[in-house]
Amino acid sequence: MIAVVMPALALQQLMALLAAVLNSTSHFEFPEWAQIFSSSMALLFIVIGNERLGIYSLIAGTYSGYLLAIVMMLCHMKARYRSAFPFWSAPDRSILRYFSKACPLWIPFFAGQVLVYTEKALTSYLPQGQVSLFDYGRKLIELPMGVIIGITQSLFSVKISALHATKGLTAAAELSRDTLRFMIHALTPLTAIFLCCGEAIYELFFFGADAGYHFQRDFSSMMRAFSLAIPALCIYAVSSQTLVTFGRQRFSALLSTLFTLAVVLLDLRYFQCLGLFGLAFSWSAMLFLSSVSQLAIVLIFSRVRFKRFFQEIIFQSFIPISVAWAISHVFPFQASFSGWGLPAALGYIIFFLVISLMTQFAMIWIFRLPMHRPLRSLFGFTHERQR
Question: Sorting pLDDT into bands at 50, 70 and 90, what band is 176?
Fold first, then answer.
């Protein structure tokens, strides 16, 4: 099975490469359509061939979907850039330069695979259900963050590269600052929900699955630890792409690798006494330290003032999260609403969403904090004030 599935990794990376090429030419919609057709093809194979092929219908659908997306993107590139993208040509020195610059970025990927293996191996020693609980908790963080950061970074990488080439390092660093401000402020309510509503989230997604209090308690503590990863992922996505634009990708790769290996060591050291919370907290804390370290390197190389930015983060993100955290201790879900079913869990989550948004808007009004600049800089494709 492994021998059959392994070549799919190469096709997956080729899809990502073609999508990046099209994104670099400001064609964002066609790669998404190609991947939608790819997923539809895989689903079609599963539905049609499940009874006859079994698990191999998933493999056949995956290969067919990948090949369909690759062919669609290649044909689109060939039709629009017939002379710029010849299908049959010998690789030149630019290809070798690309791989020489990309090699440092592959090292964190392999370190990440070591971390995944370590987490799977450690969680296999836990009681039944704990492995799935950890996977579900991680997915609840990765799913919204992957979509939001993926879309934003697709626009950001193209914009910052063009801005760095035309206006220099300072303008690119200012765009990074504005984009990071926008992402952290926009995701502050999500951070507050994961920090304060772990029991309600468990009740919402796993209602009736298990009545044991220890599962809900472990899931809630794990969500509190994972909440730190939300701002960390924002900082990491922006700062790492900024360092790549500045030609400092080796710093980004080195820091990511070191902190990933540090997570592995922490997991091995403290897993027996901390359990699932230790796995979640070590990953979130080291990711936060890694992202802040990369942001510090961006500040050193760019020499752009971030003082106002940090003040806005404190007033517009830290204070709303602190208010939500205090309210969650006054009205905890387990003591006040547990046992009321799904409506109570959903209402509890919406309540904290509203509280965090209202606190953010209050901070904006009291301190006159600007929120229009990041949107204009990132999505308006202009960095200067329009006249």
Answer: confident
pLDDT value at position 342?
Answer: 77
The answer to whether the beta carbons of residues 298 and 236 sit under 8 Å apart is no
Sign of the dihedral through C-alpha 385, 178, 304, 250: negative
Of 374, 79, 354, 24, residue with least CA distance to 196? 354
335 CB burial (10 A radius; 0-12, 13-18, 19+): exposed
Work out the average pLDDT over 280-287: 90
Six-digit token pair at 149? 């950061």
Owner of token pair 């209402």: 347
143, two tokens: 């799913």
| Dist. CA 366–CA 381, nearest whole Å | 29
CA distance 316 to 229: 18
End-to-end, the C-alpha distance of the chain in Å comes to 61
Closest by CA position to 22, among listed 38, 11, 33? 33
Residue 235: other Cβ atoms inside 10 A: 21
pLDDT band with cut points at 50, 70 and 90 for residue 386: very low
Position of tokens 């999505």?
Answer: 379
**Cβ neighbours of residue 128 closer than 8 Å, sequence gap 6 or more:** none
CB within 8 Å of 150: residues ≥ 6 apart:
none
Band of pLDDT at residue 374, cut at 50, 70 and 90: very low
Residues contacting 114, CB < 8 A, separation 6+: 260, 261, 264
333, 199 Cβ separation under 8 angstroms: yes
The 8-class DSSP code of residue 380 comes to S
Distances from the Cα of 6 to the Cαs of 12, 148, 353, in angstroms?
Answer: 10, 29, 42
Cα–Cα dist 272/253, whole Å: 30
Determine the pLDDT at residue 99. Answer: 66
Q: Which three-class secondary structure string do you get for 176-230?
A: HHHHHHHHHHHCHHHHHHHHHCHHHHHHHHCCCCCCCHHHHHHHHHHHHHHHCHH
